[in-house]
Design a protein that fits this description.
- The protein has a domain at 13-81: Winged helix-like DNA-binding domain superfamily/Winged helix DNA-binding domain (Arc Repressor Mutant, subunit A).
- 53% of the residues lie in helices and 8% in strands.
- The chain has helices at 13-26, 37-46, 51-63, 87-105; strands spanning 35-36, 67-69, 75-78.
Length: 106
């Protein structure tokens, strides 16, 4: 007997981290930029994420420097580092900068 399992959209920790940062940026921060974890957790879980996906996403976002997580686990803060999400845009921008520099030299 085969079991068919629906694909989880946030099984990849990078995708989960991007979604968590997106949600955190949309939440109004309280004193000193604090965002209570449940203000990010509830929308993530409502958007087809699981608890395991949330945990791995938080860990990945912290490792990449996108979030700062308080040791008590009650709140987090966003950092000024923005996630790079589309390599094609980055390469297009680099290509345009290169052609601009080449035109200045000529």
């Amino acid at each position: 007997m085969k079991k068919f399992v629906a694909e989880r959209p946030f099984a990849d920790p990078d995708a989960a981290a991007r979604k968590i940062v997106e949600i955190a940026n949309g939440v109004e921060a309280l004193q000193n930029g604090r965002i209570y974890i449940e203000r990010v957790n509830a929308p993530f879980l409502a958007g087809a994420g699981s608890g395991d996906d949330f945990g791995s996403g938080i860990e990945r976002a912290i490792a990449l420097g996108w979030l700062w997580y308080h040791e008590s686990g009650t709140y987090l803060r966003t950092t000024n580092v923005e996630p790079v999400c589309d390599c094609d845009k980055v390469f297009t921008k680099l290509e345009s900068l290169r052609t601009d520099e080449e035109s200045k030299i000529s």
